[in-house]
Specification:
The protein is built from eight helices and 19 strands. The protein folds into three domains: 44-143, wza like fold; 148-268, Outer membrane lipoprotein wza fold like (Roll); 273-359, Outer membrane lipoprotein wza domain like (Outer membrane lipoprotein wza fold like, Roll), CATH 3.10.560. It has helices spanning 2-30, 116-127, 169-175, 212-225, 246-250, 294-300, 332-337, 357-376; strands at residues 44-45, 62-65, 78-83, 91-94, 100-103, 107-110, 137-143, 148-153, 159-164, 186-193, 200-201, 232-233, 238-245, 265-268, 273-278, 284-287, 313-318, 325-330, 350-353. A seven-stranded mixed beta sheet has the order 1-2-9-8-14-10-13. The chain has a five-stranded mixed beta sheet with strand order 16-15-19-17-18, covered by helices on one side. Strands 4-3-7 form a three-stranded antiparallel beta sheet, covered by helices on one side. With 381 residues, the chain is α+β, with helices and mostly antiparallel strands.
């Protein structure tokens, strides 16, 4: 009897333990899971509070905030308007190119240049007494479409960034994770501008329809004129090119650290290369550094041997616009000795050091006869 009682207690205890574990597991599965917080420390979710008894609304995008003052709305931004006790008036609005939004019941209203607080107060004043006795309005920014910046090329995190404020080129590069090791010395900023009247071409009457009509017409016009940069189809954007010296910025030349504007496309190309071939000790491809010269290029290639014909060297240079080759004759010997002025090296330059037939023949004869002459010398005692 005692043995059976002990066995029963053990079975009951084991059953209770299993029931407890299963209960805890089921309880844990019913608890709501907290969403993970993502994003780099330099980013924050942008939000602006509304007016009246308004509270802040969370933006739908990750926004990098570089300013402390209230954000001024601009065309293409999307705002959310919430009116308590009036769901028919609660809606999202995209600010048009004219800077206005079509508010329900109040009509077209200027929004660009105003803060969300100012928009909320304007809606409250328009609704009070006419539509609601004591309206409570909440306005927040859903999308900062007017604050979009693009950066591509030799940066660690290229892509699109939404930034509230006025970032400089150096700050935008920093936001993009910094430069890659093989970055070039110049940044190119493509900036959208209004096309000049003399550059506009109208499509005219044609049977092209759909999204490809403009691009097709532009191709036809460009082929007829033999250029792609002097003609802009009406309705399309034109661009200007702004350059900045990255090497200067990294050396403290802040005059090169320009302000980047919204919708700018920043391209940081990989570093250019140049080539040294022919009669050098270490021919090959080398990375172009800012300010590198012919003397430094020859030194990087290990210098020249005896049989090099230094006065007949050639630099083959490619025109980046036309792709044509230019041959630049140089006297490497005179440059290396300081008699001639040093020559700057550009991207994709090919430095060719030819062979001297006379020196090669003399070197061969010398290397053939010298061992024999040494062998026939009388041995000293």
């Amino acid at each position: 009897m005692r043995t059976q009682l002990i066995s029963f207690k053990r079975t009951l205890g084991l059953t209770c333990l299993v029931w407890l574990i299963l209960s805890l597991a089921a309880y844990g599965q019913t608890q709501p899971q907290r969403p993970a917080t993502a994003g780099a420390s330099s980013r924050s979710s942008g939000s602006d509070s509304g007016g009246g008894a308004s509270g802040g609304g969370r933006s739908g995008q990750d926004v990098i905030m570089l300013q402390d003052d209230d954000y001024k709305l601009a065309p293409s931004d999307v705002i959310e308007v919430i009116v308590e006790d009036a769901p028919e008036l609660s809606v999202n609005y995209k600010i048009g190119s004219s800077g206005t939004i079509p508010l329900r019941f109040l009509g077209t209203t200027q929004a660009a240049g105003k803060t969300t607080d100012e928009i909320a107060r304007l809606i409250i004043e328009g609704l009070r007494g006419r539509y609601l006795k004591d309206p409570k309005v909440y306005v927040s920014v859903k999308q900062y479409n007017s604050r979009t910046f693009f950066i591509q090329g030799a940066v660690k995190s290229p892509g699109t960034y939404v930034i509230v404020g006025k970032p400089t080129l150096f700050k935008l590069i920093t936001i993009a994770g910094g430069l890659q090791e093989n970055h070039g010395a110049t940044a190119y900023i493509f900036r959208e501008v209004e096309a000049k009247p003399e550059k506009l071409e109208t499509g005219g009457q044609n049977n092209l329809t759909g999204d490809n009509s403009n691009s097709r017409m532009k191709e036809i016009v460009n082929n007829a004129k033999g250029t792609e940069k002097d003609t802009v189809i009406e309705g399309e954007s034109d661009y200007e090119l702004v350059t900045a010296n990255i090497g200067g910025i990294l050396r403290g030349r802040l005059d090169h650290n320009i302000i980047v504007q919204p919708s700018d496309v920043v391209y940081v190309p990989p570093a250019d290369v140049f080539y040294v071939a022919g009669e050098v000790k270490a021919p090959g491809q080398f990375q172009l550094r800012q300010g590198i010269t012919l003397r430094q290029a020859i030194s990087l290639a290990g210098g020249t041997p005896f049989k090099a014909k230094l006065d007949k060297c050639i630099i083959f240079r490619t025109d980046p616009t036309t792709g044509n080759f230019t041959e630049i004759p140089v006297d490497v010997g005179a440059v290396m000795s300081g008699k001639n002025k040093d020559v700057p090296i550009l991207g994709n330059d090919v430095i060719w050091v030819p062979n001297s037939a006379l020196k090669s023949f003399g070197s061969t004869v010398l290397m053939t006869l010298l061992p024999t002459a040494i062998y026939r010398l009388p041995m000293g005692r």
